[in-house]
Amino acid sequence: MEECAGLAACMIGVRKRLGGREVLRGVSLRVYKGTIHVVAGLNGSGKTTSMRVLLGFYKPDAGVVRLLGVDPRGPRRTEVLRRVGYVPEDAQPYERLTGLENLRFYARLYADSDEEAERLVERAARIAGLPWEVLERQKAGSYSRGMRRRLLLAAALMHSPELLVADEPMSGLDAVAAFKLRRLIKSLAAGGSTFIITTHDLREAEEIADRVTFIHRGVTVFEGSVSEALEAYSAGSLEEAFVRAVGGEEG
Predict the structure, then answer these.
(1) Are 118 and 139 found together in one domain?
(2) pTM exceeds cut of 0.85
(3) Which of 40, 70, 109, 123 has the greatest number of C-beta atoms within 10 Å?
(4) H/E run at residue 147
(5) CA neighbor of 98 nearest in space, from 131, 54, 55
(6) Domain count of the fold of the chain
(7) Which sign, positive or negative, has the C-alpha torsion 31, 35, 41, 46?
(8) pLDDT of 193-250, one tens digit each?
């Protein structure tokens, strides 16, 4: 589809029913390569369902979906998913394994040899930024929430995916852990990685986003750069722009 050409990810007019309810009623999303694209919305707005449709876990009832230029439910599904990383909101490392053992488990999913697996583990350990003795000796069950999120993000990035989708990655983190995770994401994006991050925290979104999509009640109500959002809603912050976009404040 021409409208999706050259984009890292694209959804046009997507609709999806789940459990007898139409969760998505018209979601559109255009993600440019090398950007941090934040999909923002209230809890229950359809953010997670949109990401599951984008990744091919759900079949859309209507609309167009392209992931790295490919239909994520088409014959090239397996090929394209190997070029993507995904961190669900509720993801957890294996608590009885050390951080290093967790990384080795994920590395085997991507590597064709033991040597390649170890290279991926070393790369993931650098991305995680956790002390080697912690990764090597401590069970992941003893890690803080922030350490767990960094470990999972590193596991999803170890194979150098072209696109990483992270669902509410900062949810529940304290200020220090969230700051460190934002800095990690920004540094990786500066190196050319593309991110789609969902959040309901607009202050968090403004800290990291190049572009944003606002979803409200299963419909895209805005899509563009942060500066375009501020201008469109005569807002002083992304949070204010979002509130006006979803009709929470007049004028």
Answers:
(1) yes
(2) yes
(3) 40
(4) helix 145-157
(5) 131
(6) 2
(7) positive
(8) 899 999 988 988 899 999 999 999 999 999 999 999 999 999 999 999 999 999 875 4
